[in-house]
UniProtKB/TrEMBL annotation:
InterPro entries: CBS_dom, CBS_dom_sf. Keywords: CBS domain. This is CBS domain-containing protein. Pfam families: CBS. The keyword Phosphoprotein does not apply. Residues 47-124 form the CBS domain. The keyword Hydrolase does not apply.
Length: 219
């Protein structure tokens, strides 16, 4: 899962001496909003199309050098390093350079999406369940045990902190597409199942309906 497995090497190169019009045409041809700029093969920075609005079409790109985004990855970097740079800087591509800072390729947003899909197991057959919990409540051993009690096994597990509430979202990929029994087991053990994906997406209506029924009976 290194950058070199996803980089593209057949592409035009923008030089500092090129014009804003040349950059605009190139970005339109490749359907991107960014492009690396070089001088004699050495990477200088990433040009953002928004910066081109401040100069005439005949202006040299060297006039915009202070606007360049100075980020790139190496061939030997893990592909998620490129994903992180793209996300933090809102990039539609990430330049790949050598240790000597020579431009060696680019990785597009589509390439990064493909890598992310592969790494997270989206391409694998099976169902997906998303749990949400306090971080201190997370136990891989228990989650794995509950899945296996339903004659299933985990093929991929990822987690992230939910920025809205600070809780831990746990995304579980299992080998079965019929996952209602696994979902029911998690709910029986009072896990918060946000949603799950078998043949299609479902919201966690089962638990909501159960809570509504209990509230009604308590009236």
């Amino acid at each position: 899962m290194l950058v070199q497995e996803y980089k593209r090497t057949y592409y035009p190169i923008l030089q500092l001496t090129d014009t804003a019009k040349q950059a605009i045409v190139l970005m339109e041809d490749y359907f991107v909003e960014h492009w690396p700029v070089c001088t004699n093969g050495t990477f200088v920075g990433i040009l953002n199309r928004d910066a081109l609005a401040s100069v005439s079409e005949e202006a040299s790109l060297s006039e915009l050098i202070d606007e360049f985004i100075p980020v790139a990855v190496l061939n030997t970097d893990f592909i998620f390093t490129a994903v992180k740079l793209a996300a933090l800087n809102h990039l539609t591509l990430v330049p790949v350079v050598t240790p000597e800072n020579i431009l060696d390729g680019i990785v597009t947003a589509n390439d990064l999406l493909r890598a992310t899909a592969h790494y997270t197991g989206i391409e694998l057959p099976g169902g997906t369940i998303v749990l949400q919990m306090e971080r201190k409540e997370y136990s891989f051993g228990e989650i794995n045990r509950l899945v296996e009690t339903n004659d299933a096994f985990i093929t991929q597990l990822n987690s992230s902190i939910n920025s809205n509430n600070g809780l831990l979202d746990v995304i579980i990929k299992i080998n079965k597409t019929e996952i209602s029994d696994v979902v029911a087991t998690f709910q029986r053990y009072e896990y918060n199942v946000l949603y799950y994906l078998g043949d299609e997406w479902y919201t966690n209506e089962l638990k909501d309906n159960y809570n509504n029924l209990m509230n009604y009976l308590n009236v």
